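Why should sequence recovery work at all? Because a backbone constrains its sequence more than one might expect. Tight turns favour small or flexible residues, buried strands favour hydrophobic ones, and helices have their own preferences. The token representation captures these environments compactly. In the example below, the structure is given first.
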């Protein structure tokens, strides 16, 4: 087998996903096809690159060395054609303009990007509505973005833009530590019918419509709603004071006086997606963006015992 860039992308995808099956889903392959591809790649190198474990695969020591070289080759391939200018800068190179909604993966993603693609100059804009993010991509004002959508209300855009789902996660609820349901392992929406709610505003992708629809299905209309769009610490401080409860991201790290609990029956889900302009972002860069975001999310899971406890009973937490 002659080694090609696509084989290196396969290795990176498996390493980032931690699973052959998840990597196959990420790249649009069947799992048998991905397993065959990996077997051929390992035959090419003459040594195993991954070992299997109970949760998927992990790199061997040799595999770690190969992966580092593979990422370097892919980064260099993406830089082909960029010529240094007299002042030492790179002609034809511009910053990668990234927009992001309220996403827990952003910080970890940026750290990984700086390590894996140090030649990129990143600029980041915080844009809450996913609908506005799509407009920015369509008009060429940003190159890539992290946006959100919901099952049945998937992100819509023209052929100029493409996207890949990073993760579809359940929505949890944050309660004050002294809440009457503090000892319940999970709560139903109906249990919270008489509570006041903090809700973020319309995101142009389906929120808060999906929340109100779930409340109607549970047989109630929220007693009181506070519209809130601010930092998470301020929100948690108000929850801790008993002013209200809130739907939150499942990986939220709670403050000492806040509890994060799953909702029984999982009535609400949110998907985070990586979207980018086809003409602005090379395939290798898009793969690295996606892998960085997925790895950042797995790191968040590792820091979220309430999510891991729930997921161990009900869900594969790294499903894309």
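From this structural description, the recovered sequence reads:
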């Amino acid at each position: 087998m002659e080694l090609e860039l696509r084989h290196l992308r396969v290795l990176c995808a498996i390493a980032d996903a931690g699973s052959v099956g998840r990597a196959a889903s990420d790249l649009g392959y069947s799992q048998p096809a991905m397993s065959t591809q990996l077997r051929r790649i390992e035959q090419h190198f003459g040594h195993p690159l991954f070992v299997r474990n109970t949760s998927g695969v992990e790199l061997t020591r040799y595999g770690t060395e190969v992966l580092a070289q593979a990422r370097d080759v892919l980064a260099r391939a993406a830089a082909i054609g960029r010529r240094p200018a007299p002042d030492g800068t790179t002609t034809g190179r511009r910053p990668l303009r990234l927009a992001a909604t309220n996403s827990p993966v952003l910080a970890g993603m940026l750290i990984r990007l700086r390590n894996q693609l140090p030649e990129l100059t990143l600029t980041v804009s915080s844009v809450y509505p996913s609908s506005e993010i799509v407009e920015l991509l369509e008009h060429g004002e940003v190159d890539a973005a992290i946006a959100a959508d919901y099952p049945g209300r998937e992100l819509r855009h023209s052929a100029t833009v493409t996207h890949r789902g990073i993760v579809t996660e359940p929505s949890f609820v944050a309660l004050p530590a002294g809440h009457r349901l503090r000892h319940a392992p999970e709560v139903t929406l109906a249990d919270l019918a008489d509570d006041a709610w903090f809700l973020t505003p319309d995101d142009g992708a389906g929120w808060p419509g999906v929340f109100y629809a779930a409340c109607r299905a549970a047989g109630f209309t929220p007693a009181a709603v506070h519209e809130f769009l601010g930092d998470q610490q301020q929100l948690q401080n108000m929850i801790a004071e008993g002013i209200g409860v809130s739907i939150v991201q499942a990986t939220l790290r709670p403050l000492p006086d806040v509890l994060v609990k799953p909702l029984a029956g999982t009535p609400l889900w949110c998907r985070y997606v990586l979207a980018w302009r086809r003409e602005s972002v090379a395939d290798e860069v898009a793969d690295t963006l996606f892998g960085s975001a997925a790895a950042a999310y797995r790191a968040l899971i590792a820091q979220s015992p309430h999510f891991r406890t729930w997921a161990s009973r009900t869900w594969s937490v790294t499903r894309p």
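A few observations help interpret the result. Residues 5-77 form a domain with the Arc Repressor Mutant, subunit A fold (CATH 1.10.10.10).
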